Amino acid sequence: MARPFDRAVSGFNHNVSHKGRVFHVQTEDSGVNNPTIVTLLYVGGNILASKKTSYAELVGSPNLPELVRQRMEDQHKQMLKNVVAGKYDSAEAAQAAQAVKAYQPGQLAEDAASKRAAARPAPGPIPLINEAPRPGAPESGAVTPESLGGTLFGEDLVSEKSLDEVILGYLAAEKEG
What we know:
It is a single chain. The chain has 177 residues and is an alpha+beta fold. It folds into two domains: 4-97, no CATH class; 110-176, no CATH class. Helix content is 29%, strand content 19%. The chain is built from four helices and four strands. It has helices at residues 64-84, 91-97, 110-119, 163-176, and strands at 12-18, 21-29, 36-43, 46-54. Strands 1-2-3-4 form a four-stranded antiparallel sheet. A hairpin with a 6-residue loop joins strand 2 and strand 3. The termini are far apart. The mean pLDDT is 74.
């Protein structure tokens, strides 16, 4: 049976607002098989900074879970202090965080979604793999509503909208109703 600490110590997650941006700090333990503590700093879903430390020298300690937890807390708090102290306010840090377009919670990306929808090719027949064509089906073996003698199950549920757009539309309709 595995010792209790063979599993990783539970980690920490905190959001902190600083100068109009929301920073997310996440610290986790990899467990005794890979004795490392990793802290990641996110802005808009992008990793802005990271810190990884080993605790291999502690693995034989009788109070290992407590020692690891204390190191995790210290590392997590230091990352939070760095955010508040402005360590990640520089132009380079801001540029790195915006390398991929990120959105604040609740912000809609209407322009990006409409561009993606316009770039998508029109849906065509669904090809089948390793299956002989059905009678009346096109030579390619593709399934069409006509080859199945009617409509495809659920074809009225197929949409050109992204999943985000569908969810936001549902939430907006639910709020209005």
